[in-house]
Task: structure prediction
Amino acid sequence: MSKLVFIGTGYVGLVTGTCFADLGNTVTCLDISPERISKLKEGIMPIYEPGLEQMVINNSKAGRLSFTTSYQEALDGAEFVFIAVGTPSGVDGEADLQYVRAVAESIADVVNDPIIVINKSTVPVGTGDWVADIIKKRRAGKPLDFSVVSNPEFLREGSAIADFMQPDRVVLGSTDREAANKVAKLYLTLRCPILITDLRTAEMIKYASNAFLATKVSFINEIANICEEMGADIREVALGMGYDKRIGHHFLDAGLGWGGSCFPKDVKALAHMAVLHGTHPQLLQAVMDINRNQRRKVIFTLRRALGNLNDKVIGILGISFKPNTDDIREAPALEVIHLLQNEGAIIRAYDPQAMPNAREVLKQVTLCENPYETAEGADALVLATEWNEFKQLDFERIYQLMRQPVIMDGRNLWEPDRLRCMGFKYFGIGRGINNHCD
Ligand code: NAD
Ligand code: UGA
Result:
């Protein structure tokens, strides 16, 4: 079996590395964080991803999966090395490639045998060529036999293992067809379409895919805002649209907008790349503007319901950027909390998995043990993330606990009729019809 190395043990590197081990390959995962690696060696996960812990433990026990901080040790005898480090936003919205550069340099410094360098990080078009140049320059005196393949990753946090095992497609881009074919072989067992393109096209497919999904969400949020004014219900509008196969049901859930470690930085990076090359990414700008404004809806709605928000107690349910993850990067909840604090509101918050991460960044927020403690004494409750455990809350209890029964359902999770009939002032996103109680 092939020896695979994954550089970076975050959501992408750890999940894909572990999944490849599960398929029978010998995999080494490397990270510069000694803390991360020593915990992984003990079977302690650095992230919450459903199903991952058991898979890591099983494959480590079976001897197929190991962890290290040493490039020398990891790359010894490796045929494939995957780059899966972060590419966060830089100052102007461009992708910050410092981690990718550092990895390319480390590979150049320790590898001597032929190797295929596969880039899984989301990077601007042209980065594959840039990585190849870095390696070539660093090895000027002692050329290395290597090829670069772009292999963008499409997994979602919260369902990452299933997304890896049953992908809609695998995209590979390279100037070296033979290298791309070798990487394709690693995926054959997944029985999905495999598209082989040139390097730049593969890199663009990733940005275009994320930007399109973000556009779909911003589109439905814009329609939701119109629904609200026109007395229509966005949930049914989305349902009615989605039956059209050309539109589809996915990514039409209106809410507080998209967040996470990828959409925000990737749409920004694509727009930045476009401007840099002389085009005008007007649609991308609008997609970002709509998303920004979506968070502010909470403030406008609560002001309408409560008047001045100074000293009002607001309970926030859900902090992670979406359910089933502990990731709070660019989470709508964080922005909403920040905006509410600017208005002088007092914040209480709870999340099923993101509390350790939240504790590190949230200042002057009372972090609660559960949804009921969050509701205690609150003038309003805001649902920011649609975790399963929020679906069937005991609203009678919540009604008793709150100081004022105001609910802002930022994910359209609950039934407006039911809550209004219980006496709550319910506000959703784009649910314009003022329903009545029977
Ligand atoms: P992450 O921030 O969770 O993890 C990155 C890891 O890389 C960290 O553990 C860090 O310590 C390590 N690292 C940084 N520099 C290193 C170096 N020089 N050598 C070794 N390790 C190093 O990142 P992530 O969310 O897994 O994302 C990685 C890339 O994949 C990004 O480009 C992202 O856009 C892309 N991506 C992410 C997702 C997702 O769901 N998170 C999905 C698809 C694509
Ligand atoms: C997204 C893409 O779906 C993945 O294909 C991609 O690999 C990944 O980005 C990446 O490049 O990192 P992820 O960020 O994990 O995955 O989460 P999504 O499920 O796409 O949700 C993104 C955001 O959009 C969340 O804040 C979510 O709440 C929001 N969203 C999603 C909506 O508001 N409405 C929807 O209908 C769908």
Remarks:
- The chain has two domains: 3-197, 213-427.
- The pocket of uridine-5'-diphosphate-glucuronic acid (ligand 2) is lined by residues 122, 153-157, 210, 213, 217, 251-253, 255, 258-260, 262-263, 321-322 (CB under 6 Å).
- The chain is about 45% helix and 15% strand.
